């Protein structure tokens, strides 16, 4: 079924930031892989809450507190529908990093004996293994390193082919009856590759291992159905999908969340507290201690509604066209090496690349002088850069509000940077 083409002009009109100039040029934003811009609907949602509904949720008995709580929980249902989950499987966090740490530290607490018999499946010790990939963002690597260090478990790593695809042959060898967790990104934030979730879930579940999906680069760009994917946990951040900073989402299958010992403890997540012990509420409340990020949650729901209104299918198709144009253009520039799969392999509309003889920071500064914002550095993913012999790269990432002309401007600037820095001889 063919989707309606995305109306970029209409979409861009909703984003106030595109009215500005940078360094005397119209602002070209190609850094949505780091954080996305926000439409007026999202900006207005936070202001509206502050002006009319400011109150603590799930606490006050007065009218405004009740209204705030209703908006807060409606937002949970909205986000749950967007990713193919049930509302009680959605936990609010500060970001995806906190969500992944929540799982890892919950498993650490289970390994110390917390949670009783229900938490037995989360306990790790010597001889157990955690499997990750060589392409992980540090947020889906360091928490597992720490869990291994605390429990005595071992960390195993699935490598990459030279074209950036996962070595599935190695995955089949590494995922064994000793594996307790398999954690990987749905989409690499450096390589742009879309990983084969179904294959990895099948390998993990065949040996009883839990699957943790980093969905930061997929939730904003791809139609996501977490139930259909069959993952056990998933995490993503609001600010990468038109929402505010300071809010993220942890998905977990209901029976798992209700068995996992909590990570943060305090008010609003308990049933009974004495001076010596506490009993915890069912999920998701058991993981939402303290005062919540209420206005951000409500604004994230507006962001999800905005993406739904545009249509995720239309967004996917639009970004696929931009991504193909980007890869083709980079391939035509002498001295430029793209990290990750070439055109034709399933991937999203981002590309990280190295310009021979020019540091990525210098490439980024050259583009910034023309009003073009891109990401430079190792993108919180040092191991994958090391795998491909790079200390850093320049990353161009597209989204629903970008145009083909903006991609062309960036490509022209990359090509011109070679002459500017004298490496085109």
TrEMBL record:
Biological process per Gene Ontology, one example term: cysteine metabolic process
Any one GO molecular-function label of the UniProt entry: pyridoxal phosphate binding
Keywords tagged on the record: Pyridoxal phosphate, Transferase
Superkingdom: Bacteria
Classification via Gene3D superfamilies: Aspartate Aminotransferase, domain 1 (3.90.1150.10), Type I PLP-dependent aspartate aminotransferase-like (Major domain) (3.40.640.10)
PROSITE patterns documented for this protein: AA_TRANSFER_CLASS_5
Domain Aminotransferase class V: 28-409
Catalysed reactions, as listed in the record: (sulfur carrier)-H + L-cysteine = (sulfur carrier)-SH + L-alanine
EC number: 2.8.1.7
Cofactor: pyridoxal 5'-phosphate
Task of the protein: Catalyzes the removal of elemental sulfur and selenium atoms from L-cysteine, L-cystine, L-selenocysteine, and L-selenocystine to produce L-alanine.
NCBIfam families (UniProt xref): sufS (TIGR01979)
Family: Belongs to the class-V pyridoxal-phosphate-dependent aminotransferase family. Csd subfamily.
Protein name: Cysteine desulfurase
